[in-house]
Design a protein that fits this description.
The chain is α+β, with helices and mostly antiparallel strands. The chain is 30% helix and 28% strand. The two termini are 21 Å apart.
């Protein structure tokens, strides 16, 4: 898993506000958002549930999507995920 802190989070293709939602809803919202994107596009997820850190990082590690950015600002967790190529998801080249 690669995490780059220099990513501009304001340039994302889709932003999801999951603030106030309890686990596993932030991850579910992120998955739904990624399904709406084309490969290479980015999703910014904002969550307040501390469990989202474990969930999103594990999801990025186990999936082919890339966690480009993660930061914690007090009680706010911000993630930027990049959708992988659909051929990668199906195991094709």
């Amino acid at each position: 898993m690669t995490v780059t802190h220099a990513t501009q989070t304001t340039d994302c293709d889709l932003e999801i506000d999951a603030i106030g939602l309890a686990c596993p809803m932030p991850l579910l919202k992120a998955k739904q958002g990624l399904s709406r994107l084309s490969h290479g596009q980015t999703l910014r997820l904002m969550a307040s549930d501390p469990g989202s850190e474990r969930d999103v990082k594990t999801f990025a590690k186990l999936s082919l999507h890339t966690l480009l950015h993660f930061e914690r600002q007090d009680e706010l967790f911000i993630y930027v995920l990049q959708k992988c190529d659909s051929a990668q998801l199906t195991g094709q080249k």
